[in-house]
Amino acid sequence: MGLGRRIRIKSEEEVELIRKSSLLVGRTLAEVAALVKPGVTTLQLDAIAEEFIRDNGAEPGFKGYGGFPNSLCTSVNHAVVHGIPNNHPLQDGDVVSIDCGTLMNGFYGDSAYTFEVGEVSPEISKLLSVTKECLTLSIEQAIVGKRIGDIGAACQKHAESNGFGVVRELVGHGLGRELHEAPEVPNFGRRGNGPRLVDGMVLAIEPMINLGRREVRTDEDGWTIVTLDSMVSAHFEHDIVVRKGKADVLSSFLEIERVINKTK
Ligand code: MG
Ligand code: MG
Q1: Over the stretch 141-165, which tens digit does the pLDDT of each residue have?
Q2: Residue 192 C-alpha to ligand 2 middle, in angstroms?
Q3: What whole-number distance in Å separates Cα of residue 197 and Cα of residue 218?
Q4: How far apart are CA 141 and CA 44, in angstroms?
Q5: Counting ligands in written order, which one lies closest to the CA of residue 170?
Q6: Per CATH, is 12-263 categorized as 3.40.50.360?
Q7: Rg of the chain over CA atoms, in angstroms?
Q8: Which ligand is closest in space to the CA of residue 172?
Q9: What is the pTM of this model?
Q10: CA distances to 74, 98, 122, 157 from 230, in Å
Q11: Domain boundaries along the sequence of the chain
């Protein structure tokens, strides 16, 4: 991914700016969440998100990034990440991972949530729960004195003990003035391995967990990463800052889940 080698530790002021940007992502995803239902297209969701981001004084973080055409990555069912919004209506029983980035005051926010469309099967619902648990368990490891490998090991253990596959080819990352900074944050690994975590390190942690096998490939559109076995994949992402004893989560799912629980 070419993140560069240097891990940029953030000042308190920088952390607060990343928090602002990250919270705007959560609010944007909550706007989108209200519309996620059978019949809506991911292009419609993308338009709502872009307008909301700009109305709040920010720029979409993904639009134009590496040539990506839209403000949201919308990855449906067997798509893992980097799906391009399109005109296909979402259907009852689908899941859609919606990944959103914002750039505000020179700092990025980057967060993702996988939504159920209508009624999904129990096994898919379990995949989503376990993936979100993987994110929580990973964040618990993101404290001063631990290492990057501790984050991945916690995620991998939980996913694999539930029989799910952990994507290897795509990883979390540092975050700040760049959308992708060092270090890489794999969702698999060995405890005690990798760079040491220090106070003020800002990381985007984003487990990508497959219902079936872990292998993925790039779709013909050149962007969308899909599972090789065409089984469903899930993806949740938070931005955090490493602190002593407990990481500070900069992004939020609270507003998203308020909307989901209201519409259920
Ligand atoms: Mg993201
Ligand atoms: Mg990310």
Answers
A1: 999 999 999 999 999 999 999 999 9
A2: 23
A3: 32
A4: 37
A5: 2
A6: no
A7: 17
A8: 2
A9: 0.97
A10: 16, 19, 18, 23
A11: 12-263
